[in-house]
Amino acid sequence: MYTKIAKALPPxxxxxxxxxxxxxxxxxxxxxxxxxxxxxxxPMRFNADLPAGLMIDSTSGIISGQIECEGEYSITxxxxxxxxxxxxxxxxxxxRNKVCRTPLLGWTSWNAFRQHVSHKNITETARLLVETGLxxxxxxxVNIDSGWQGVYGGEHDAITASPAFPDMKATxxxxxxxxxxxxxxxxxxxxxxxxxxxxxxxxxxxxxRFNNTYFGIGSRRAEKENVAQWCDWGFDYLKYDWSPTxxxxxxxxxxxxxxxxxxxxxxxxxxxxxxxxEYWAENCTSWRxxxxxxxxxxxxxxxxxxxxxRWQSVARPGHYFDLDMLELGEQWSGACxxxxxxxxxxxxxxxxxxxxxxxxxxxxxxxxxxxALLTNDEVLAVNQDALSAPARCVDEHKRGDxxxxxxxxxxxxPLSDGSVVLALFNLGEVDADIPxxxxxxxxxxxxxxREDMSEWPDALTLPxxxxxxxxxx
Length: 473
Prior knowledge:
The chain is globular. By secondary structure, the chain is α/β, with parallel strands linked by helices. The strands form nine sheets. The chain has an eight-stranded parallel β-sheet. It has a six-stranded antiparallel β-sheet with strand order 24-25-26-31-28-29, covered by helices on one side. Strands 2-9-8-5 form a four-stranded mixed β-sheet, with no helix packed on it. It is built from eleven helices and 31 strands.
């Protein structure tokens, strides 16, 4: 393996280190829940200076409650154990469309369990997010993808859960008990992807205006009824899935979510139209206009195409272009087929652009390499930087084809502390030199290795399908 990866620290060891971003958002007058991500040995004691309406559990670091008034609040969170203490100042932004001020970090069920998702494997995943330490590094969402749906019915005449979820509220309650957030999947189509017998959020006769939509969209709207059901269950996130992904159908769901008593992250997929870019960037936590991720090199390469690059220009804090779930780890179809270096590269592009990062593998089968990749706080901090500035390609070279292809890219990404991240990619099939900009007296740090660089050459030689990620500051 070319890229040097620092080993994962043992979970829950050493002194406290608060891994929270410098800003965090939520809605006013809706339930607030945040498990402050802190690594370190337990038991640990927490306290925080919080606005009226919020409280922190002194043993878990879970902040809960409700803030009544919109605005910005400066809070200080502190953690202490037998090895020492840490504290961090965080800006709370409370108001409309404030959830996920930095990209969402979490887990989603699709690649791990496909349509065989259940109460058992979802609650086990929530437990493992905490037990493995992933929650202490910021992964806080447990999102149920397609496969949970039953038939219409119940108190709200909404989609009920399948027998795999005999008590969906109990499932969500388990997730919340860990201080984590719960997500659900749906569609405005009459039938959902992943399980074409599963209903969506429209019913009745097909609406002829959407004849080009997969599985069709019904003329009878059922968004309000379904949102009411999700709120009763306690969900915090919605993946809303159809193509072409249009603002007309998104608006019905957006209005229903905003009028609800819960604070939802609202993520639309898979074919967001470029002509509606300002709508997505104003109203959606994230959006996709790319094919599903998969564990093969050509799929990873597709994340670099020009369509993706232009979407970065409209992304902003709280609103991100989504490169889809991670390819790594043991999935429903078996072990990840990407090489270790390709997995590092796939993670790096989500860190720098930045994109939501959703693990989608069986957490019971994580390897030491998987944990090292997922728990590097210096790389995660690049993704979670409050500036949310996209990486910009400043140098590219491409020639040849096939086995002789030479293709390199150099990206720069500014951070809120004034430093700059450099990402060097060799996307070709031969070794390639990538020139480096002058260091100009700045300190250079290799983020994947988590070590300072004592030398700064004029160029670095990278083997095929590899990346180097460095911070200058």
